[in-house]
Write a structure and sequence with these properties.
With about 375 residues, this protein is an alpha+beta fold. The chain is built from eleven helices and ten strands. The strands form three sheets. Strands 5, 6, 7, 8 and 9 form a five-stranded antiparallel β-sheet that branches. The mean pLDDT is about 90.
């Protein structure tokens, strides 16, 4: 929020009165003259009060538009006139702008620990892809840990067909280890919480199980054929793609962590930050509770204030690129985007730039210092 004083000198008001009088000349009717023929001085004499009110109103409106444009796209709410006063020399207005406040922070005071860059786990990603693309194959052997087992179950006068489980360390699966397809056995154990016979679910009890089929998970071999099935030319190309994706993910994660730290440290350096109620309300509408809404609003106002203070701008090309991306994600046309959507996109771009500015100017402490 910003309190701003606006002063209109009487000379400025009179110039505008002259313009308005000329505009009115075509329509105004003065006794003794045909429509549009009365001289301007006479119009000013007959309608001095109305002309002055109109001229002053136009000056105020133009100034308001100019003020709001100076803070675009960070106008959270409409401008309010708090007070006005008038003398024979000037008209003075006190207005309240619902915009980012002025802030002055010494960025050299923001110190961040150097981040551990971590290691790229390409092997782990390959294993994950193997798991996702594994097949279940029927086996004739006895049940082992990790197998997928399909069985018919009877218990408490109820029966379930083709119930499936993955054999792990829980009590019930352990009871069917070493059985094979066709075997039948009475099992006494604590049954899983999601057991299909409700009277046994999560409880101790007895049931008769008949093994219908045993399947094991078969992972595809890590070779060129596996890579081709996933749309790559060979395994090397798949690994390179994984490396790039992991680097990008790691970079985003690091930036997210650094962003939180730098914003918190920057907020600590601001003596007082007036938060726009409009912005807080907007955060609440996004599903945040009061405390979180205020916290988030503070961060946004800080970024907005930096964007204004550093005169950060949105280029036409980057605006077009963002609009294309958002339109694609929303399955819409760029032409369908309204003024408010474009304003939101501009806010997002400038907030990202302000955050980058903060991060770039934060001093990273050497761990050896």
């Amino acid at each position: 929020m910003r309190d701003i004083s606006i002063v209109f000198k009487e000379e400025e008001i009179q110039k505008r009165v002259e313009q308005v009088a000329k505009e009115w000349k075509k329509e105004v009717i003065i006794p003794g003259f045909r429509k549009g023929k009365a001289p301007v001085p006479l119009i000013k004499s007959h309608l001095s009060g109305e002309l002055r009110a109109e001229g002053l109103q136009k000056l105020i409106e133009e100034k308001m538009v100019s003020l709001m444009e100076d803070f675009e796209p960070f106008n959270y709410g409409p401008l309010q006139i708090k007070n006005s006063s008038e003398t024979d020399k000037e008209v003075k207005l006190e207005v309240l702008l619902d915009v980012p406040p002025e802030i002055n922070i010494d960025l050299s005071e923001i110190k961040l620990d150097k981040e551990d860059t971590g290691k790229l786990d390409i092997k782990g990603e390959l294993k994950r892809l193997q798991e996702i693309n594994s097949e279940l194959r029927s086996v004739k052997r006895r049940i082992k840990s990790g197998d997928n087992v399909f069985m018919d179950i009877k218990g408490n006068d109820k029966s379930v067909s083709n119930y499936s489980i993955i054999v792990g360390d829980d009590e019930f699966p352990q009871k069917i280890l070493n059985l094979k397809a066709g075997d039948e056995k009475e099992v006494e154990s604590k049954f899983p919480e999601d057991f299909p016979i409700e009277t046994l679910a999560g409880k101790k009890g007895k049931s008769i199980v008949k093994i219908v089929e045993v399947k094991k998970k078969v992972k595809p071999p890590l070779n060129d054929e596996f890579a081709k099935d996933l749309g790559f030319s060979n395994l090397s190309e798949l690994k390179e793609n994984l490396r790039k994706n992991l680097e990008e993910e790691m970079k985003e994660e690091r930036k997210e962590k650094i962003s939180e730290k730098v914003l918190e440290k920057a907020l600590d350096l601001v003596d007082e930050l007036t938060i726009s109620p409009t912005l807080i309300e907007g955060q609440k509408q996004n599903g945040l509770k009061e405390e979180e809404a205020i916290k988030n609003a503070k961060k946004l106002i800080l970024l907005d204030a930096i964007a204004i203070n550093k005169k950060l701008k949105v280029g036409e090309k980057e605006l077009d690129e963002w609009m294309e991306k958002i339109a694609e994600s929303e399955d819409a046309e760029v032409e369908e985007m309204g003024e408010e959507a474009i304003r939101y996109i501009k806010q997002s771009i400038l907030r990202n730039k302000a955050l980058d500015y903060l991060i770039d100017n934060a001093k990273k402490e050497d761990s050896n210092d």
